[in-house]
Design brief:
Elements: H1 2-5, H2 12-22, H3 38-43, H4 48-55, H5 65-76, H6 80-96, H7 107-128, H8 147-154, H9 158-165, H10 169-189, H11 210-213, H12 230-238, H13 241-244, H14 248-270, H15 276-288, H16 293-299, H17 304-341, H18 354-371, H19 375-390, H20 398-412, H21 418-440, H22 442-448
């Protein structure tokens, strides 16, 4: 941590290795963002279980839960993990604007160091806030707070991170988003109980709390608030891709794939004539890999490892089914909430010709900074924009926004890193699918474009 504070970031590989191998979070970092497949991208839109299953195409590394917990507890001790996150957020700009007297670094190295900071941050943040291991059976850990509670205890609000620690607006919201979403989830779960309250450690991070609202205006230039409302600002930054849509097809495909594995193992367990084909296939695979006769016999018998694998597959199938239902319900709730508020997103703006300037300000202050953070954020920005279009949001002009977007991207191509370019490519690909459909499918154009008020010529 001291080395990181002094600006030395080459040792980040050690922290990354700990998070991946000990923490079991190798599935978060799948290499370059540009190399992610369609399956991996769809998986990142779903639950933690779906993300694990799709990260390496069904290959899930076994994790020592005890070791993972101990690593998380160590990072929670003395605010170590939060300190790492803040330092990583600050160091990215130091990497680019290095004022040391050392020999100037090659631009390729600068970009790689910058991406390394962001990748480590993107791995460390979900690891610190993963509450799936909060259930403890070790008496020595019985008084240890849950991951979210421990994180909320030490993390400042996004406005404080921005003003006091110099963390960029998009990064400050990213660090606080797990707590903001936890507060919104709690509010959604308690909506049927008027007497219930959001847990005390989450109340300061609810987007409408006094602590949050007092700092919103400090996070953007004063002139920006003439063209964008605080409501749109905090709604855009509060949610993640999980909240906007549910990848039902990907859930079902993974459930089907795992059920086939379950059937295979059950046939192997049962033995007899039904298992002959499976055993022959497994024997051929081991023999092709150079396995001995003993290895072949072990591979074709139902072992303790096979039993553990069968239990994991069964549990995973249940979790995927539950996760799909939960996400579908939650994303529907969020969409209904955004629809009910759409009339206020661009209402009461004081700027002259606000409808046009609002598109530039919204893209510059909200969309573009978030696109570059991660593939998930890139997909989120694309879905959020199209959701504004589909909802007929008053004051949101889709063609003007697309024009602003293209102009900005052309100017930014030579000032972004490789991972940022990958994220930008994901965003543009998502946008281009829809735009191309409008361009070449007359029925889609008439349904989704013709008659929309934001396309009227007198608005430009």
């Amino acid at each position: 941590m001291r080395r990181l504070n002094d600006g030395h970031i080459l040792e980040l590989g050690v922290l990354q290795s700990l998070l991946k191998m000990v923490g079991g979070y190798g599935f978060v970092d799948s290499g370059s963002s540009a190399s992610l497949s369609k399956v991996q991208l769809e998986g990142r839109c779903g639950s933690l279980v779906l993300r694990k299953e799709t990260s390496d195409f069904g290959i899930v590394e076994l994790v020592n839960v005890q070791a993972s917990r101990r690593l998380r507890f160590s990072l929670q001790d003395d605010n170590c993990g939060v300190t790492f996150l803040i330092l990583l957020s600050q160091l990215r700009s130091k990497v680019v604007y290095d004022e040391s007297n050392d020999r100037p670094k090659q631009i390729k190295l600068v970009g790689n160091l910058y991406d390394s900071c962001q990748r480590t941050l993107n791995t460390l943040l979900p690891f610190l806030t993963d509450g799936s291991q909060d259930v403890r059976d070790d008496p020595s850990e019985i008084n240890q707070p849950g991951a979210i509670a421990a994180y909320a205890k030490v993390l400042p609000a996004p406005g404080v991170l921005h003003t006091r620690f110099g963390v960029a607006t998009a990064d400050a919201w990213a660090l606080c988003r797990p707590l903001i979403r936890a507060a919104l989830f709690a509010e959604e779960d308690l909506s049927s109980d008027n007497d219930a309250k959001i847990p005390a450690h989450l109340q300061p991070f609810h987007p409408t709390s006094d602590i949050m609202q007092k700092k919103y205006h400090d996070m953007l230039p004063a002139a920006s608030w003439n063209h964008i409302t605080p409501l749109l600002f905090h709604r855009f930054y509060s949610y993640a891709i999980y909240d906007l849509s549910c990848p039902e097809e990907r859930y079902r495909n993974e459930i089907t794939r795992i059920k086939r594995e379950i059937d295979r193992l059950l046939m192997l367990q049962k033995g007899g004539r039904d298992a002959i084909g499976i055993q022959a296939s497994m024997a051929s695979a081991v023999a092709a890999a150079g396995g001995t006769q003993r290895a072949i016999r072990e591979a074709t018998a139902f072992t303790k490892e096979h039993s553990m694998e069968l239990d994991r597959f069964t549990h995973t199938t249940e979790m995927l089914s539950i996760g799909m239902k939960r996400q579908k319900k939650h994303s529907g709730h969020v969409q209904n909430l955004l629809k009910s508020e759409k009339g206020d997103f661009f209402a009461g703006l004081a700027g002259e010709n606000g409808s046009v300037d609002s598109m530039s300000v919204f893209f510059t202050t909200c969309v573009y900074p978030r696109i570059l953070l991660s593939p998930e954020d890139a997909m989120y920005c694309s879905r959020f924009i199209m959701l504004l279009h589909i909802m007929d949001t008053p004051g949101f002009f889709t063609l003007k926004f697309l024009d602003v977007m293209i102009s900005a991207v052309v100017g930014a191509l030579y000032s972004i890193t490789e991972d940022e370019a990958g994220c930008l490519g994901i965003f543009l690909n998502e946008q281009w699918k829809i735009i191309s459909e409008w361009r070449y499918d007359e029925r889609s154009y008439k349904t989704n474009v013709v008659g929309k008020v934001r396309f009227d010529s007198h608005q430009f």
